[in-house]
Amino acid sequence: MYMFKSTIQLLLISSLLLISACNDNSNTEAKALKAAVPAKTTAPAKNEQATKILYITSVGWFHDYQQQIKTISNSINQYMNADIDVIVGDIERLKTTDFSNGYDLLIYNFCHAAQRDDALVQSLISPIVEQGIPLIALHCAMHSFQFDSQWAEFLGLHTLRHEKQRDITVEKVGEHALTKAFPDSWDLASDELYITLSKNENAIALLQSYGVETKQNHTQAWLYKSGQGNIIGTTLGHNESTLKNANFQCFLANSIQYLLGLELTTSANPAFASSVNLLSKGVIYPDQQEKKCVIHNMFSIGGEKVKSCVASQCTDSSKIAQCTAQCQQDNPWPVPESLREACQNNELTAPN
Question: Which terminus of the chain has fewer Cβ atoms in its 10 Å neighbourhood, N or C?
């Protein structure tokens, strides 16, 4: 287990090592990214003052969120001037305080798939829908709160599962100011392709990928106006290789700039010097054995409850799908945090 330092000072010094591959003339993707971003009807503002960003994540049972804080914040600060505050877990803070006050933009990068907490959902939705604060939603944020229909409605896209991890090709969808300077397609080494079940008709697809298992394209990034606020979501970003991909890094930074009406930057600028500050104190991340125990028992306990319900109640073959869905609704899986202490005390274990 690790204790995350309360403050990380990121001083990005002038060095050729920090120049991103998206500005590398030897790379065909980079050449496309050097194309001029089309002018908007109003001139975009310069990113002279530091953008205040609140990054909300969790300890990570399925993802290395501790490392992702560093990778994503470093990526953003190579392309723009930003001060980033971080909340890790801290559910009560999110439910009981005006956590978004004073920030220009929020980033949600957490995974609460089994969580059922209406107060938490409302507190996460409110800053965007009611206050108009723009949001970047990353990866498993889309698989969070799976039994709360308002979460998918809020995001503008509904997805519940993904295909097996494999190399995927990302393609632009149409022409949009945000993606104009990007290549028509690029490859990612091993990521999870989220399966799109439905997309709001007002959500604008920006990126897509073809699913080998489903044999169809699925939206991988989109722009959506949710209430008073604008959201850019991307289901990409499970692995570190994606987060360090030059095109992904440019897309993430440009998405923030686009939502804030700032000039889009398509090459890294090592002159930026910004800070990352951890607001949550005493964060303890799970080690690999603890993750293994928690995940095994979450699936085992939750799966057995649903399986037992289906076996005893779903006897009408013509209604098996509806009945199974009801069993899943009525038998929530345990959230990982509820199993953590039992795993630490060896009351619960996992196969070697």
Answer: C
CATH architecture of 2-278: 3-Layer(aba) Sandwich (3.40)
Q: Which two tokens stand for residue 226?
A: 């949710």
Q: Residues 6 or more apart from 313 whose CB is under 8 A from it?
A: 323, 327
Dihedral sign for Cα 268, 273, 278, 284, please: positive
Quickly count: other Cβ atoms within 10 Å of residue 312's Cβ.
9
Q: pTM for the complete prediction?
A: 0.84
Rounded CA separation 264/268 (Å): 11
d(CA 276, CA 54): 10
How confident is the model over 335-348, as pLDDT tens digits? 888 899 999 999 99
Instruction: Evaluate if residue 21 carries a pLDDT over 80.
Output: no
SS3 of 205, please?
strand
Contacting residues for 199 by C-beta, under 8 A, at least 6 apart: 156, 157, 158, 205, 219, 222
Q: Where in the chain is the domain with CATH 3.40.50.880?
A: 2-278
The CA distance from 72 to 347, in Å, is 36
- C-alpha distances in angstroms, 109 versus 29, 96, 140, 221, 274? 26, 20, 7, 14, 20
For the chain, percent of residues with pLDDT exceeding 90 = 62
